[in-house]
């Protein structure tokens, strides 16, 4: 049995702990992506992907851990069977790099067009780290949101000004400046502790969606996420991202 959390809370850690199989390294930087029905052969394909690309010794234990993650997340997600019949399931394998030595603090925006009548339902993404450090999650506090808003006001100077034009290069520089600005202002905010085997749920597309960042990538990492929706919602997401519904992508 899986105990659901408060689905309206923007940030929560599920009560179930997932038993993490033995992993210590990955072969390369690569990603597994799937948009489609939850009832597909998703877990066997995902487990085989990790088994091939990492140094796992037991594919069956990988499948067990991935299935437990999917089951716990799906049970926690609000909605009828049809309203959460599909998912976006991702596994990212990373070698050490310096790309996140400066955190990339951000909030996740809207992922797809909501079904009519479910616009107010809080939507979330679920995450589990199999190897390496977990995602950095800041507490859902007014102070954090105020710092985010101030940084965007100071660095993203063109926003809300229709008469002001900016080039892509100028915007890239502004976003990099914002990243450095936020890293300095948020450096003393204590991150939420996410332990080994814990599934973290965080909302997206809402004003109080948690501020988070990829961790410092000093070691190999295996990280996976899943989010759910109806078939129509996930197909709309495929259109937005140029993905193919029901197909497995590993690159």
Number of helices in the DSSP assignment? 5
> What would you call the structural class?
alpha+beta
Strand content: 15-25%
Amino-to-carboxy terminus distance = 35 Å
Order of helices and strands: EEHHEEEHHEEEHE
* Biggest β-sheet: strands ordered side by side in the sheet: 1-6-4-8-3-2-9
Oligomer: single chain
Task: Give an overview of the whole structure.
With 251 residues, the protein is of the alpha+beta class. The protein has 2 domains: 181 residues, no CATH class; 50 residues. The chain has 5 helices and 9 strands. The strands form 2 sheets. The protein has a 7-stranded antiparallel β-sheet. A two-stranded antiparallel sheet has the order 5-7. Helix 1 packs across helix 2 and helix 3 runs antiparallel to helix 4. It is globular and about 55 Å long.
